[in-house]
Structures are given as structure tokens and as C-alpha cells.
UniProtKB/TrEMBL annotation:
UniProt superkingdom: Bacteria
Gene Ontology terms, MF aspect: cytosine transmembrane transporter activity
Protein name: Cytosine permease
Organism: Anaeromicrobium sediminis
GO-annotated cellular components: plasma membrane
Length: 427
């Protein structure tokens, strides 16, 4: 391996296709995707759903439906990533153009740095509450450890996930077991009626909205899949099983204790140490993925090394974590509305315009800006913002994705012509 090849490999192929020698099988990829979808906020959202639905069949239906939508969306992106072995940001070059892709890369990177900072604070505050340890040291330690893992790259994320995934499943099952016992058995939990019932549409919207921006980044990890089948299967396992499990853990704990915060649920169940461990591992795996994705986005924007940009991004997220936690969650949620159309546009470009065939990035003559994609993005954000609050069309991220797909295809045909083939853009 040449010096240049070693440099590219050490930077986790940020701007290149992942070579066959670095690709992973189903177990490895599923572990990473489960670590990605084992998200503390999903458990908290599950707690909210648990207080608004009967456990069976209403809650199970809502969780299953929402995560099937996420799984299908992620699987479309995962297939594209596993076939091309390219990140979200390089796939965006085909769909948005070289310069055009810098805007979605900036939005994705900026949002993920923000969520990384929020995650560091989410790690520190509960531990401070339960143990009395000062916030600042916890934030510094958490930020350094999480950043260090991401600097090492995909391999370190893989190993953290191998430790965290079984531990989180074990701790979550312990919590559910205690909830069932303390609640008088499963029949008693099934009989609990919600005080303020939510509709299926609202519940599904909450389920999908809680992780749709993360699902847009699926290619950043699934590009390491050994085959297309592995990529799709790992994505579906992560979203339909992993994310559903997090919702159930949070929901059952909320039904049994009346608390939507999983760390408080575990503390109330006499599992304080387990609660802290679950919280730390849960946030660590998701934060690592967020920071990793932000590094890839910044690499696409600047052309600099991913690992150096990761250090900068991790430092910024850590330094501003308290500010982000207290002031930025609403803004980050707003930004997250703009992310799903990016995935929709990539899906439209890869599957509908290019018929699942992208040439190598080194052979393709990219547009500078694909204006069809820009138009589709703007229209999709508008469609999302005017979505109704109730009913079947209230799932705003899904509205944005479908709108982006349709508008991109129509706008591309109108601006560039319907017969433009991928091969005509090969150098």
C-alpha cells in the first residue's frame, strides 16, 4: 500500500469509495447500525408515547408503523451506499453537484455537531443529578472520550457498538422486567389506559420525526457493507428492531412509573448504576455516529482530512454543549426538518434518474450545481412546513421526502431534458 493509499485508508475513505478489503459483513454492520439507532431520545419519545397509548395494540402499532417507514427510507439509502460504497456527502455530489453538495453537507454537519453538543450535555446532567459530580468535568471527559473514538474512525465505532449494544439490551430488559413485576404483571400493564390519548397519526409522526434526520445519514456507515444485501439487511435491523426496542423500553418504563425519562425510570427502579451505564453507552454510540457524519460533511466542504476536522467539530460541540442544550434544541429540531429532503433527492437521483448506476467519482463529470435538486429541496421544506397537525398527512418528514422525490424528477426533466443519461457525463 502506497503512502497516499495509507493516508486515504487512515481517513476512513472520506472522499473515496470504501475498498473491498475494508468492507464488513452482516454481524459487524448490524452492530454498528444498532449502536446508531440505540438513541436516548428514542427512549424518551417512547416514554411520551407510553403515556399516550395503550400498550397493546395501539402502542405496538404506532412503533411498528413509524419504524417501518424509517427502515424503508434508510434501506433505500443503504442500498445506494452499499452499491457505490460512498458516503451521504459524495452521493450528494451526484444529486446536487460539486458546489451544490456543499450546502447539504454544511446543514448535515452543522446539525450533527449541534446534536453532539446536546448529547454531551444529556450525558452530563443526569449523572450530575444522581451523583453530585460537577457538570464541567463530566462534559470535558465525555466530550474527549467521544471525540477520541471518532478520530480513530469506523473501526473504533464498531468496537464501541459491540460493547454497548448487548449491554443496552440487557439493561433495557432488566428495566422492562422490573416494570412488569412492580406493575402487577403484564396483564396489569396491558390494562393501563392513557390519561391523554394521542392519535395514531400523531404517534407515528413522533416516531418517524425522532430519528429521520439520523436516517438520512445511513450511507455514512452502510458504505462499509460487504454487499448490497448486507447493507439493506443491517439498515432494516437497525431501524425496525433497534429503534423499536428503544421505544418499547421507554414506553413500558413510563407506563409502569409515570416517568418518561429512562434514566429516572431506572433510578426509581433501584437501578441507578445501571441507569447511568445505559445512558452513557446509549449517548456515546449515537454521539459517535453524529460526530463521524459531521466530519465527513466537513471533509466534502473543505477537502481537508476527516480526523482533523473531527477534532475541531468535537471541540466546538463540547465547548458549547451547555449553551446548545439550553438554547439550541428548538433550532436543531427546525434544521432537522430540512434534512429528510436531502435523502429524498438522493433516492430520486440514484433510482429514478440514473437507474441505480453511478460511475466512479473519478470518472464522472459532476455538475457544479444541480438546480433541479435545489428546487426540489426548497419545495419539500415548504411542503413539510405546511403539513397538517393531524391526520394521515401529518407525518411532516415523510411529506418532505415524497415531495423531494417527485419534484426532483420533474424539475430535472424540465431543466436538463428527459433523455440525459449517466454515461454522457463520464469524462
Amino acid at each position: 500500500m502506497s503512502i497516499e493509499e495509507k493516508s486515504v485508508a487512515h481517513d476512513d475513505y472520506a472522499l473515496e469509495p470504501v475498498p473491498e478489503s475494508a468492507r464488513r459483513g452482516l454481524i459487524s454492520m448490524s452492530t454498528v447500525m444498532l449502536g446508531f439507532t440505540f438513541f436516548a431520545a428514542s427512549m424518551w419519545t417512547g416514554g411520551t408515547l407510553g403515556m399516550g397509548f395503550r400498550l397493546w395494540p395501539d402502542l405496538i402499532l404506532v412503533i411498528t408503523l413509524g419504524n417501518l417507514i424509517l427502515g424503508v427510507y434508510g434501506a433505500f439509502l443503504g442500498y445506494a451506499a452499499a452499491k457505490t460504497n460512498l458516503s451521504t456527502h459524495i452521493l450528494a455530489r451526484y444529486a446536487f453537484g460539486i458546489k451544490g453538495s456543499k450546502l447539504p453537507s454544511f446543514m448535515l454537519a452543522f446539525t450533527q455537531i449541534g446534536w453532539f453538543g446536546v448529547g454531551v450535555a444529556m450525558f452530563a446532567y443526569p449523572i450530575n443529578k444522581f451523583t453530585g459530580v460537577s457538570i464541567i468535568p463530566l462534559i470535558i471527559i465525555g466530550g474527549i472520550l467521544m471525540t477520541a473514538t471518532v478520530v480513530i474512525g469506523f473501526k473504533a465505532i464498531e468496537w464501541i457498538s459491540k460493547i454497548a449494544v448487548p449491554a443496552i439490551i440487557l439493561l433495557g430488559c432488566m428495566s422492562v422486567g422490573k416494570a412488569i413485576i412492580s406493575g402487577g404483571g403484564l396483564q396489569s400493564l396491558l390494562a393501563v389506559q392513557p390519561e391523554q390519548k394521542l392519535t395514531v397519526a400523531v404517534g407515528t409522526a413522533l416516531t418517524v420525526g425522532s430519528f429521520i434526520s439520523g436516517a438520512t445519514l445511513t450511507p455514512d456507515f452502510v458504505r462499509f457493507a460487504k454487499t448490497k444485501q448486507v447493507g439493506v439487511q443491517a439498515t432494516i435491523i437497525g431501524f425496525t428492531f433497534g429503534n423499536s426496542l428503544m421505544f418499547l423500553f421507554g414506553a413500558i418504563g413510563a407506563i409502569a412509573t409515570g416517568l418518561s425519562d429512562i434514566s429516572e425510570v431506572l433510578a426509581a427502579q433501584g437501578l441507578l448504576g445501571a441507569g447511568i451505564a445505559l445512558l452513557a453507552l446509549n449517548i456515546w454510540t449515537t454521539n459517535d455516529n453524529a460526530l463521524y457524519a459531521s466530519g465527513l460533511g466537513l471533509a466534502n466542504i473543505t477537502g481537508l482530512k476527516r480526523k482533523h476536522l473531527t477534532i475541531v467539530a468535537g471541540t466546538v460541540g463540547t465547548v458549547f454543549s451547555i449553551f446548545l442544550y439550553n438554547n439550541f434544541v428548538g433550532w436543531l429540531t427546525f434544521l432537522s426538518v430540512s434534512l429528510p429532503p436531502i435523502g429524498g433527492i438522493i433516492i430520486a437521483d440514484f433510482y429514478l434518474r440514473c437507474k441505480r448506476e453511478y460511475p466512479s467519482p473519478k470518472e464522472y463529470e459532476f455538475k457544479q450545481v444541480n438546480w433541479a435538486a435545489m428546487i426540489a429541496w426548497i419545495v419539500a421544506i415548504i411542503a413539510s412546513s405546511i403539513s397538517p397537525e393531524a391526520g394521515i398527512f401529518s407525518i411532516t418528514p415523510l411529506n418532505a421526502i415524497i415531495t423531494a422525490i417527485v419534484v426532483h424528477v420533474i424539475a430535472y426533466d424540465f431543466i436538463y431534458g428527459k433523455t440525459v443519461e449517466t454515461e454522457t457525463h463520464i469524462k
